[in-house]
Every structure is written in structure tokens, then in C-alpha cells.
Amino acid sequence: MHGVFEMRGLEQKIAALWLGPAWRLDLSVELSVVCGVISAGRRWFYRLNPPQTLPATVVVVGGIHVGGSGKTPLCAHLAGLLERRGLKVGIILRGYRGCDNKRSSLVKPSDSAESFGDEAILLAGKCDCPVVVGRRRRDAAQFL
Prior knowledge:
By secondary structure, the chain is mostly helical. The chain has helices spanning 9-19, 22-48, 71-84, 113-116, 118-126, 137-143, and strands at 91-93, 105-106, 131-133.
């Protein structure tokens, strides 16, 4: 198909699902119900346990991508931009495999990558701001 009738990306996938075997559509409906239940559970949990606020603005660099999407260089660049604007910047990370250490720690460029992960060591050396690694991000932010 060419021209106006050509379907790409998401439209093509939806059409294939709609016109394909019925079991696929049934499975997608069941999965959407599961996702709805999980979402409702998360909203209920956050109503019972509201997140703690921090006395600083927090910028999150990340998302659902793991490795290779450029989060570390973006974080270093963003930290530099914010520092040049006169803001106090600090970086928190979970560290390599969630960091084995139970306590939050300030990372120095001379520390070992085995302890904190190469990303933390790289950021500590490249950025002119404190880098803290901790298993729980909230605790690391409070430590910072």
C-alpha cells in the first residue's frame, strides 16, 4: 500500500491486532485489566504512604531504559549547566547493582568502581558537585 493508505508504527500494530486471531485481542484485554489493577494498587499505596518531600528541587534523569541511552552524559551536562547558573547541584545514584553498602556514601573520583559502579566514579570525576550513592534514593538525597 502506498500514499494515504499506508500505515506505519502503532497504527499498523493496532490493525494487525484487531484483524488478527481473536486470542490476541482477548489477551490484550486481560493484560489491560491486570495493568489497571496494578495502577489502582499503586495509587492506593501512595495515598496511604505519601512520598516525603525534600527541601530542594529534584530533577530525575532516567526512565524505563537500562544502559546505553545516554543518561550519564546528560546528567553530567545538566549538572554543569545548573552550576553555571549559580545553583547548588548534587547527584544521587543507586550505584552498581543497587550498591551493596547499606548506608549512603559520598563518592570520590579515586574510589573503586567495584564499590560504587563506574557511573558514579565517572560523574564524581567529571562534575564539580557532590555525588552520593545509596541503596535507597530518598536516604541518599537526605544525606546529600
